[in-house]
Specification:
This protein is of the alpha+beta class. It folds into three domains: about 10-100, Potassium Channel Kv1.1, Chain A (2-Layer Sandwich); about 155-275 and about 600-650, no CATH class; about 280-590, Neuraminidase (6 Propeller). The strands form ten sheets. A four-stranded antiparallel beta sheet has the order 5-4-1-33. A four-stranded antiparallel beta sheet has the order 6-7-8-9, with no helix packed on it. A four-stranded antiparallel beta sheet has the order 10-11-12-13, with no helix packed on it. This is Kelch 9.
């Protein structure tokens, strides 16, 4: 305006319409000093209006930051109006995040104001001369302040958006209780009462009742009932309100969750998806050789490896325990549910203690559940998950038990929790390993026909056929395999010394090689820096980590963790475990945030909000006895229409005032 040749650049007087003197003063201070102070919300709102009107982005950005600093649990709704009016998109995102992080406090505060309002109403009916203009701030709960004013109630759209937020850090049972508390606060659900009593006090039309039921159903569809444990589903969810069981739609959601917990059958995937998941490295079971020889039942996390913030001595964080002490089992991840299959119950060289049990681990419940028995007991075998059309199966290949080596293949369906035999390997085999690429299983090596094998086979669940491919450069067993992109990586293990094959003496190998699916060719990689036999390999970020195993040369468990850099092709010693473990299971899995960040979970727990639900229901009954109407129009939950507060008045004033300024 002043430098682009417009007439205002030389005019002695300039008329600015639609801005206030205070707003313009604050704008000039920001432009010339990069700072200003806002004595009230009115100053801030007028500055935002002026900066938007004059399209001063620098000042608008400054005001946006000031607005977010003043955000509280009781003024957010008016700040949302201001942000929408002036298209402050970043502010809207931050307010949504603020609501999600303070959901429990916002809803509890709204419920407190509702009860306080009823309490005042009952007192005014008893004493008509009671002073209605007394200072209510003195009666606010301890966590509120006198300078926080405005509507503390969430609209339906805000509540629905919160409940659908995948990054919300709150337990699902607490979310359900908060959602139902919001429903009660907004008079959408009648109190639990006998049918006769309800018939006597019907005050709303059938049309309004149906609309309220639709709102409740819509909110309940955002609750992930599958993440709530069965005990809470029965004790807290079903008993929360009679509508939970009487409404067909809500009842079916709860039944689906109960059926999943009882039979493992899901019908709505979204209801079983973990909120704010934390990708974690989970280590399971294993056999310790020295200094305390035994089979472990521990499950612990090594998440510092994922973030590459670990020290040389890797610290583990306990998670849960296995149903039994196990080693040399197979861990298969299916839709973020972990299946643990077979394995050994005790130290044995020939699979004498092999088991057939299958367990599954539910991250949302943090516990193991028995699922089924395999047809045959297996240890030292390979298992994986494969798709066939719309169905997913778990396959187990070969292995060994007290009766000897196995050539059978069996598959497991989560739909009926049963194992069944299918194809067979060309010959008996154990100590082999494999990985999945493009929904095809690749199995290589192992001990077969009295010697270690270099063979590689592919197995497709769609065709149900085995195909022999190009063999490895080194015949081996007890090795580790990892799939990355279209390449198989094979690490370590052991082989039979050619000069002493008659003695069947196994020697460790540090040879690593990779297989290209596209060319059907093997390539030898740089030698490993540490020896690993009976270890686990996991692809993490840009590297492959190898954990545990048996060090044949030292005749002890391998404590050192090896890392292969996929970009440089170099080997590194990444760290050291507390104890050398062989036959340990490793898997990268998404866990609920509260299992990983336990200290934070204690701080944000909203268990204190549970008691308010009963209070709100009893308040409804009190309403009936005093004769006051609780049938507020349901449209109020969309608009936050309450009495004018300071922010609301300032907001309207800043839009209404249009002053002519002479410069």
């Amino acid at each position: 305006m002043f430098t682009s040749g417009m007439k205002e650049s030389s005019a002695q007087q300039i008329e600015l319409k639609g801005v206030t003197a205070t707003g313009l003063q604050k704008l000039i201070e920001i432009v010339y000093t990069s700072s200003t102070t806002f004595d009230s919300h009115s100053d801030l709102f007028e500055a935002i209006s002026c900066a938007s009107h004059l399209q001063c982005l620098l000042a608008l950005d400054y005001c946006e930051k000031s607005l977010l600093k003043r955000l509280t649990c009781r003024n957010f709704s008016h700040f949302i109006q201001m942000a929408k009016m002036y298209r402050l998109q970043n502010a809207l995102k931050q307010i949504d995040l603020f609501i999600a992080n303070n959901l429990a406090q916002i809803i509890n505060q709204s419920g407190w104001h509702k009860r306080h309002k009823k309490h005042q109403l009952s007192h005014s009916q008893e004493d008509p001369d009671r002073d209605r203009d007394q200072d209510q701030d003195a009666q606010l709960p301890p966590h509120t302040h006198s300078d926080i004013v405005g509507s503390a109630n969430l609209t339906y759209h805000q509540m629905a958006k919160c409940l659908s937020n995948n990054e919300l850090r709150m337990r699902e049972i607490d979310l359900f209780v908060l959602a139902w508390q919001w429903i009660v606060n907004n008079n959408l659900a009648a109190p639990n009462a006998s049918k006769a009593l309800l018939n006597e006090r019907v005050r709303i039309s059938e049309h309004k009742y149906k609309r309220k039921i639709c709102i409740i159903r819509s909110l309940m569809k955002n609750i992930r009932f599958g993440l709530i444990n069965p005990s809470d589903l029965v004790k807290k969810v079903q008993s929360a309100h009679s509508l939970v069981l009487s409404d067909k739609c809500i009842r079916q959601m709860v039944l689906d969750a109960l059926n999943y917990h009882l039979m493992g059958v899901t019908s709505h995937c979204q209801h079983f998806k973990i909120r704010s998941p934390v990708t974690s490295l989970m280590m399971i079971g294993g056999r310790e050789i020295t200094p305390n020889p035994n089979i472990h039942d521990s499950c612990y996390l090594l998440n510092s490896v994922l973030t590459e913030t670990h020290s040389f001595k890797m610290r583990k964080s306990p998670l849960t325990s296995l149903p039994n002490n196990l080693s040399h089992m197979q861990c298969v991840l299916v839709n973020n549910v972990l299946y643990m299959i077979g394995g050994c119950l005790s130290q044995c060289a020939h699979g004498e203690s092999a088991v057939s049990a299958t367990y599954k681990y539910e991250p949302s419940l943090n516990k193991w559940t028995y699922v089924a028995q395999m047809v045959e007991k297996r240890a030292y075998f390979y298992a994986c998950a494969l798709h066939t059309h719309s169905k997913q199966w778990v396959y187990a290949f070969g292995g060994k038990n007290r009766d000897g080596s196995l050539c059978s293949i069996e598959k497991f369906s989560a739909d009926n929790s049963k194992w069944s035999l299918c194809k067979s390997l060309p010959s008996t085999c154990y100590a082999h390993a494999g990985a999945v690429l493009n929904d095809t299983a690749y199995i290589c090596g192992g001990y077969t026909d009295g010697q270690f094998s270099a063979s590689l086979y592919s197995f497709s669940a769609l065709s149900d056929q085995l195909e022999e491919l190009a063999g490895m450069n080194v015949a081996r067993g007890w090795h580790s395999v990892c799939a990355v992109a279209d390449t198989l990586f094979v690490f370590g293990g052991c082989f039979l010394n050619a000069q002493a094959q008659s003695l069947q003496l196994a020697e460790p190998t540090n040879v690593a090689e990779c297989y290209s699916v596209q060319t059907n060719q093997w390539s030898v990689l740089k030698p490993m820096v540490n020896l690993h036999k009976e270890a686990s390999a996991v692809h993490i970020n840009r590297s492959v980590y190898i954990f545990g195993g048996y060090n044949i040369a030292a005749k002890t468990g391998q404590k050192l963790v090896s890392r292969y850099d996929l970009e440089s092709g170099e080997w590194h010693t990444a760290g050291q475990l507390a104890a050398g473990m062989t036959g340990v299971g490793c898997v990268v899995i998404d866990l609920p945030w509260y299992l990983v960040h336990k200290q934070e979970a204690k701080c944000v727990s909203s268990s204190s909000c549970l008691s308010h639900l009963a209070d709100d229901v009893s308040d409804e009954d009190e309403e009936e006895s005093t004769g006051t109407s609780s049938d507020e129009d349901e449209f109020s939950i969309y608009t936050n229409s309450e009495s004018d507060s300071e922010e609301e008045n300032c907001f309207k004033t800043s839009q209404r005032n249009s002053l002519t300024q002479n410069l």
